[in-house]
Amino acid sequence: MRAIDGDELIVTIERQKMEPLDDVPCRPSADVCPALRAWGREAVYVFDGVDCGTETMGERDMKVELLTAPTEIDWIGVKRRALITMYGKGLGFIKPPSSEWRHAILRARHSPIRYLRYSFLITDIPSNTAVHLCRHVHAQPYVSSLRNDRQDAMDGDKAPRDTPVNMILDVNAEELMAIANKRLCRLASDRTREAMLLMCQAAEAVTPELRGLLVPMCEWTGGCKEMFPCGRTKT
User: Fold this and answer.
1) Residue 159 domain-assigned?
2) 26, 41, 99, 198: which could form a disulfide with 57 (CB 3.0–4.6 Å)?
3) What digits encode the pLDDT tens for the residues 150-208?
4) 108, exposed or middle or buried, with CB in 10 Å at 0-12, 13-18, 19+?
5) What's the domain count of the chain?
6) Domain containing residue 195: CATH number
C-alpha cells in the first residue's frame, strides 16, 4: 500500500462486461467469489499497482478508487476511544488492536468505529445512481453538477437521468455497513448494487476485518424487514 499526497491510498476496481443481477447472492466478501462468477461479470482488481486477479462484475465504465482508508494510527485511535469509556483507561500508550478485536468492534457497530474514514472516488457513475448514495445522511457526497452554468458538455436541463457523473463519497465504517445493508438488497436498483459492491470490495481490500459485515439487511438481521420482500429469505 502506498501513500499518495499524505494519507491517500489508491484501490482501483475496473469493470468490464455485464449480465443481469437477478437471483444471485449479493454478499461482497472475498470468500464468495463463486457467487460473483455466477453473475457472469468480470472485474480487474488492482491494488497498489498489483493485478489482484479477475472476478465477475460489470458492463459500464464505472470505476471506484479508494482515496483514503483507515491507518494503524486510526485503529489505535478507535481502541483509545473504546477504552476511554471505561473509567481510568485509555490514557498513555495504546497497543494496536488485534485483527480479532477489530472485527469484533466492527461487528458490534460500537461508536468508536465512526473514527474510521473511507473516501471513495466513483467515476462515470450514472447520475440517477449517484442520487441513491446521496440519500444516506451520515455520509458526505460530492457530485459533479450538470447545471449549465457549471459545465458546457451538454444541456444539463435535458440530460438523460443516467448521464455519467463523478463523485466522492466520504463515509465512516459504521455508515458504510449501514449503506451496504440497504444498497446490496435485491430491491435496490441493479446499478446501485453494482456501485455498492465495488465500494465493499475496495474497503475489504484494506480492511479485511470487514469481511462478512458488508451484507444486505436480510443477512445482517437474519430475515427480511422490507414492506415488499423479494423472496430471497423465508422471513
Assistant:
1) yes
2) 41
3) 888 888 888 888 899 999 999 999 999 999 999 999 999 999 999 999 999 999 999 99
4) exposed
5) 1
6) 3.30.70.3180
